């Protein structure tokens, strides 16, 4: 049974909930709130990672409104993809940003306030990791712990959820994911380079955690980290490819600004169970130190990917024309 909170704690919980809801308005607000938090608390590197991954998610959302996706995927499937992106990112923010704010308030008060975390539905496992961090100040450990926590958080309500599982992740279109952005995260710099990583078996939490650890290394340890940080600090996110279009030598298909493409989506957190109580998960097995990443310069690879997409569009057009001719011929024979 939870003990009755002090009035000061109740006020703080209410204040944090208000701030979380404000930041969780849409992809752009999430990206901006993560970034602002990181500037105030640079020791929490996960906030920087979350901001850059959120920026990538916004660009992936608006890409669904551009070629080749408008020609290769049905409007209904593109809508489901958008909602899945949005749902996963909303759920992560609702969980993680409350944690970040409680940590920030702990700094202000000069004492740990992590006893308030259960009131935001976070896992007991990540609560313990925050308590360890307060004592040991191991920045890499809390970075990795947050990656592990958030990927496990979305596993049941998003990845394995009956609707998304059937209508997104188990479809033939999703198995074509090398041409989608679910499995690839890109980090631009101001010089026109693209860095990042891809993941196979996206539906497995362990695969996404490994991707997160690789991306964290690129942002915090790689020789290119300073150049990527300059992009992060100087380019305002719009959720569009245009955010870095001017830095690249090639002209890509135009994508709209996110807030012109999509209406805000209302969500509810329907899963309140603690993922970490499942003995089969064993989250500490993922608590490993970051390792250097090889082959993370994706500029040339991405150029090839775009050529493949353009070729797929041409094939699809030829198929549709051929199908239309067959249909017309059958009508004439009747």
Quaternary form = single chain
What structural class do the secondary elements suggest?
mainly alpha
Q: What is the count of β-strands?
A: 2
Contiguous helical run count? 14
Estimate the strand proportion.
under 5%
| End-to-end C-alpha gap | 75 Å
Mean pLDDT: 86
Task: Indicate the percent of residues in helices.
Answer: 55-70%
* Biggest sheet features: 2 strands, antiparallel
In angstroms, what is the radius of gyration? 21 Å
How many domains would you count in the coordinates? 1
Order of helices and strands: HHHHHHHHHEEHHHHH
Strand order of the largest sheet: 1-2
- State the shape: globular
* Residue windows where pLDDT falls under 50 for at least 5 positions: none
Features:
single chain; 334 residues; mainly alpha; two-stranded antiparallel ribbon; 14 helices; 2 strands; 60% helix; globular
Compact overview of the structure:
The chain has 334 residues and is mainly α.
